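Let us work through a complete example step by step.
Step 1: write down the sequence.
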Amino acid sequence: MTKPILEVCAYNVHTCMIAEGLGASRIELCGNPKEGGVTPGFGTLEYVIENGALPVYVMIRPRGGNFVYDEHELDIMYKDIKMCKILGYKGVVLGILTPDNKINIEETRRLVEYAYPMGVTFHKAFDRTTDARQALEDVIQTGCERILTSGLREDALLGRATLLQLINHADDRIIIMPGGGVRSTNAAAIITQTGAKEIHSSALVAGNTDFISDPGELRALIAAINL
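Step 2: predict the structure and record it as tokens.
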């Protein structure tokens, strides 16, 4: 069995260094953790690409809050994607919904096409939808290569039944990557009970105030999923 891919959510350059040093597979780079992650600043983007070797996917999100964007915000997203392409990033992470919390297929597809040849992950905006199977089919239409999701629940362990259904229904047409509350204590169970080939974690611990991944937790997480 192929070892699972571990993507580490990094809110700062320190986490990027820790993740690379300990053997993570990939990084999702975000800014402003208190807003749930937005597009990092240019200085961070330039520094990370110049000083790291791991594949990095950059969050493309112009603000916190909902995932319904107007024309001004969409223009910003295009500009941020262009910047990531110029800098040489492997991929981007984004998600656009309609006002009734369905996947905005057309706008997402345009961004995916614009991002090429970078890969695109559809982020946890997916969990704002109400029909997981329909949302899966909609994201597949956009050309995204994976979906980051908790199975429409508060965390991936609670959503494991839906995650299993999504992975089975996807049938290798798109990657389903469990994320949300994934820690060393539950990662193996989530992988075993869903069949996930990729998993996502920030490797943060209780009481953390700087949003830097805890090296001990990350080591334990890697050991738990047998990377």
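Step 3: interpret the result. The mean pLDDT is 97.
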